[in-house]
Amino acid sequence: MPFSPPSKRVLQPFQKDELDEALEKASMKDNKTVIIAVVNKAYVEGEVVPNMLDLFLEGFWAGENTRELVNHLMIVAVDQTAYDRCRYRGLHCYRLVTDGVDFMGEKIFMSKDFIKMMWSRTLFLTDILKKGYNFIFTDSGIHFVIDFGEEAFNFEFIKNDN
């Protein structure tokens, strides 16, 4: 196909990216809310069995009326090992890549890589809001042991002025 100047190019229809697809699959259909947990290799592997991801998911299984919530969970993997394990488990997964930083290992509090990791996560969460989604951000060390009902996921009071 020959090159054409920008003024004569035909606009392509909007194509969803991987984040759009993961959010759409994981979100609650009535209010576009998703539960987000960030994991790395340390959370999905290790000498301890079950690992942190296993224990986190067990909370949804064992909790009171929480099993359905796992359908709205999106695991954000910051390294390939965590992403592969997430996909293997059949969960909603997104691979967050930050140029020049390997998040596979531990990052010392307030180190240069730790700060990059925190900013990467903050900007990622901002992107989710810009896409019109609500989220509940959780750590994989938290266990969902009770469903607080529809009221807990009602974000009607939040107005987006953008």
From TrEMBL:
It holds the Pfam family Nucleotid_trans. Residues 69-142 form the Nucleotide-diphospho-sugar transferase domain. It comes from the Eukaryota. This is Nucleotide-diphospho-sugar transferase domain-containing protein.
